[in-house]
Amino acid sequence: MSELPERVIFVDVETTGLSADDRVVTIAAIALRTASVHQHDLDVSGLHLICAPGRPSHPRALAVHGYDDALLRHQEPFSANAAAISHFVNDGDVVVAHNASFDIAFINRELTAAGAPTIGPPVFCTMENFRALRLGSASLDSVCRHIGVQRQGERHGALEDAWLAMMAFLFEHGVHRRDPLPDGIDTSPSNLRKPDASDLPPDEIEDAVLAGVEPPLRPPPGHAQGGPPEDEEPEAGAEEFVDIDGLCVAIGYTDASGQWSVRTIRCEGARRDNGVVYLDAWCLLRNGRRSFRLDRIGSVADYRTGEDLGDPTDYVGSFVPGAWFARGDRTTGHLTLEEVGFFADGAKVLLYLAMEDGELHDAEQAVILDYALGRLRAAGRAGPYSEQGVARWIDNHVPTQRAAKLALGRLMAEPSHGAEIAHRIVDIVVADGTASEVEMKAAWGLFRSMERREQRQ
Question: pTM score, two decimals?
Answer without folding.
Answer: 0.56
